[in-house]
Fold this protein.
Amino acid sequence: MGLFTAAHALPTPSAAFLPSFSFNSGILSFPASLPSAYDLASLKAWYVTADPLHPALAFATGMSLIVWILGELTGNVSQVDRLWTFLPIVYSVHFTFWPKWSGTGPVDERMLLVLGLQLLWSARLTTNTYRRGFFNPKEEDYRWEVVRARIPTWQFKLMNLVFIAFIQNALLMAAELPQYLLLTLSSSAFSVRSGYTPPPVGTADYALSALFVLTLCVEMVADNQQQRYQHFKVNAKSLEKKKNGGELMTEQDKGKVARGFVTFGLWSWSRHPNFACEQFTWYILYAFTVIPFLPASLSLDSLTHHALQIATPADALALAKSLQGVLWNYSMWSPLTMSMLFYASTGLTEEISSAKYPLYKEYTRRVGMFWPPLTFLKGVWLFVTGQKSKVDDVVFGSAKNAPATKKDKAL
């Protein structure tokens, strides 16, 4: 069918937004682009003349080998986990300042803004990782011990090589695809070929920045609520008697300890509000490559018209393809791969939690894994089926359905 008409024509994207402009060639030309010599002068010359994607790929490959070797030598495969707090910043700094270091142009203001937001992100994650004691090189994610027990040793070694070392380092580099795209839009090394001039930093960028900071603040609240609960649970015996008169803990407090996992505050709306916020931050960073660049010729009327014309999957694919470089671009792989990683790892986490805590399955019935709207829908379903009051009592209350106390609200 004739999906596109002249009256409702969609804007033509700049070639700079398409993977064929720089990304595809950058990936394919990487092996042949490696320097012929590895002395300092040769490496510096290669760095300033190569596609900026090439040094990033080389660094990711080197880090993958280091992580794999350390994992094999120490028997601790959480080496890469500690890199998550700062390695994306290394790639972001590289892409942001490459034009200045290579002499191809000034530092782009939008990229500098994104880098500043990522530094805030890194500060939050680093702080939370530190207070959990995870920078201790002897610490290992408890989930790897579960995986080791489930598969033969050779399979775990293969997993360490392929997924833990190489794929995770690839994801850490892929997290900065939006910065690479912004670089190819702004640097004269690329813009002379595309003929595209990006708009200056404006209202859309500031709005996205405010949303990013707000999301980080919510994530910090979730972190602190989890930390307070864990301290409360560990110190439950010493809290058995209150300071003001030796009263026993309330039934509500006893219920919290008995459950074994946090269900108050943000955790009553999401089983992993910190993970939800973490994923959302990467979608916001991706949005810096879309929203500030929306063409003036793009209208809601035109989009609605084309959406209403969709009759087959082929029509939907044709519309999606026509919007590439306008409403979406290849750097979308950054947040998408993050989401895939979070869904896979959180699934294993919840499997372990369900085996450890008898009431965790009830928690999954009442609260969504990540997104609060799903929690609302779960509540509606339980209400319709007459189970909401019972499940709420198990998940949020106590055995005696005690009302929330001031102390509970403070926690």
